[in-house]
Amino acid sequence: MHCNILSLFPEYFHSPLGTGLMEKAREKGIVSVDLVNPRDYTLDRHNRVDGRPYGGGPGMVMAVEPVHRALQSISPPGRKLILSARGRPLDQEMVRELSGEEILTLICGRYEEIDARLLEIEDIEPISIGDFVLGGGEAAALCLLESVSRLQPRFMGRQESADEESFNQGLLEYPHYTRPREYKGVRVPDILVSGDHGSVDQWRRQQSLLTTLRLRPELLQQSRLEPADYTWLRGVPWNRPGRNLYPVLLHHPVVNKHGQTCTVSLTNLDIHDIARVCRTYGLPRYYLVTPLRDQQELAARLLRHWAEDGPGGEANTTRARAIEQVRVHSDLEQALEDVRQRCGQEPFLAATSARDEGSATPGDIRSILRERPVMLILGTGHGLAREVLERADALLRPIRPFGEYRHLSVRSAAAITIDRILGDVW
């Protein structure tokens, strides 16, 4: 594989390219690299490669002309990539894709980026190595080059080393150990010195799953898992992030289609379906709030019917397991007090609305859950009354903020919102 790197600072690459496996790969001809400096392709006597941005603003912009001329000097350039925070995220799947290319050309920006016209003139793919900002594309180019080079035949001492590394199967890698057998009271796991290679392979697989679950649980959604993996993971004790999320289905005060404050009736489907969502995601409680005595009595009858010792619960034990988490209160304050007593903390109130008023994201609420309980307030009728929205600590933005149709049932909205807040497979 051959790689061209366009950079204003080619010296940045001298040490990394002359170190370790990369140096050996270049000596063996497995990987070759040419460094091209756009400053060599300027036409003015000062070798200017930047200019002030049109429209004003801080910083400088790399000029399109010297970069374009430098790019045209490369023949053939192969697949052209620019390292940019606006690019497609670089992951192991893309690394494998790029490793099959014979020639890559990497363009490293500096300052406030390169003049955007370069991407209109040339077929160049923006690539990002993460959601953060660097001083230039050089460090990102090194990350890309090394990750792609490691998948070239004969780059690694053993091909198995590349096959077993993190992300190869969508999982993080298992932990490694070497001598001594014990250090400062910590011993190497006995299984690794047992000589039972089948058990060692199983242990490594399980440790890879466990490491991924603890550190990057979202990766499990895309991982290639075996039936035995699912069985083992179900038995792993794990503090689910939803343990402090408390949905509240509010029937008063809400608004009708005319915007008037009102009280609406309980709906059997809302009780059952949201309860099952809560049970699926491991939420501790689900509150129904209604001030109407007859509605409270109706809810109590439904819950008794589906309780474990009720006729519905005896016929459908899974329904009973979901329903047992439901609590009925006459107002929001009662539900708040129940959470205070359970958690010993004042809960954070996150209200929901299909209007354009909200700005909080599911990620915001997920971060708050790490520190304190959150009550997720869901409205019936045509949404929560103004007094509830004003009392809330945050208002979530609509599920489809840019869509023209916003008329989901509260059951659907609850399921989508809970899934987005918790954000993992647990």
Task: Detail the topology: elements first, then pairings.
Blueprint: E1 2-6, H1 14-17, H2 20-27, E2 32-36, E3 50-51, E4 61-62, H3 64-72, E5 79-89, H4 92-99, E6 103-108, H5 117-121, E7 125-128, H6 138-149, H7 159-163, E8 182-183, E9 186-187, H8 197-215, H9 227-234, E10 245-250, E11 254-255, E12 261-262, H10 268-280, E13 286-289, H11 293-306, H12 311-315, H13 317-323, E14 326-329, H14 332-343, E15 348-351, H15 362-369, E16 374-379, H16 386-391, E17 394-395, H17 410-422
Parallel strand pairs: 1-2, 1-6, 5-6, 5-7, 10-13, 10-16, 13-14, 15-16, 15-17
Antiparallel strand pairs: 3-4, 8-9, 11-12
List keywords for this structure.
single chain; 426 residues; alpha/beta; Alpha/beta knot; Trp Operon Repressor, Chain A; 3 domains; 5-stranded parallel sheet; 17 helices; 17 strands; flat
CATH topology of the largest domain: Alpha/beta knot
Poorly predicted tracts of residues? none
% residues in beta strands: 15-25%
Relative helix content: 25-40%
Strand order of the largest sheet: 14-13-10-16-15-17
What is the CATH homologous superfamily assignment of the largest domain? SPOUT methyltransferase, trefoil knot domain
Structural class: alpha/beta
Give me the number of helical elements: 17
- Total number of distinct structural domains: 3
Mean pLDDT: 93
Distance between the termini: 41 Å
Rg of Cα set = 29 Å
Shape assignment:
flat
The biggest beta sheet is recorded as: 6 strands, parallel
Kindly state the number of beta strands: 17
Q: Which architecture of the largest domain does the CATH hierarchy give at level 2?
A: 3-Layer(aba) Sandwich
Q: Name the CATH class of the largest domain.
A: Alpha Beta
